[in-house]
Amino acid sequence: MFLQVILFTLIVVAGTGGELCVSRAMKKVGEAKSFYPAEIFRVLKRAVRIPWLWLGISLMAVAFFSLLGALSLYAVSFVVPVTALSYVAGAVGSVVFLRERVSGARWLGVLLVTIGVTLVFLGRR
Question: Could you report the per-residue pLDDT of 79-104, keeping only the tens digit for each?
Fold first, then answer.
């Protein structure tokens, strides 16, 4: 049980934290105005200079290897639904970390995901 909590916490927190960090970095970089190679190179050149990008990539790597560990120990039908808690963490993180607004309909979706994950977790026994 303790190993489950550690693995799934790493997957959810590190994965979502990584996505939030990369999002923060890319908002600072701005969008590519075209898909010409010179423009893509310019955007990449700016992105690799932002520490948030590297922190995000590192966190996502931790989440990926934690997911591999979870998949080697537990059934996919258990792992994938439980990792859906990332949607909950993403909504909360976007409000707290990125100062985004989340609509009531999205919060309702987050609640439904939470209920679904709880049912999957309780059905594990």
Answer: 999 899 999 999 999 999 999 999 99
Give the structural domain span for 112: 2-122
* DSSP string covering 83-124: TTHHHHHHHHHHHHTS-----HHHHHHHHHHHHHHHHHHHTT
Please, what is the Cα angle at 123 between 91 and 114, to 5 degrees?
15
For residue 25, give both structure tokens.
Answer: 């970095």
Q: What share of the chain is helix, strand, coil (3-state, %, to 5)?
A: 80, 0, 20
Cα gap 6→27, rounded to integer Å:
31
pTM of the predicted structure, to 2 decimals: 0.88
Number of domains comprising the chain: 1
Chain-centre distance for alpha carbon 59 = 9
Place of tokens 């996505």: 19
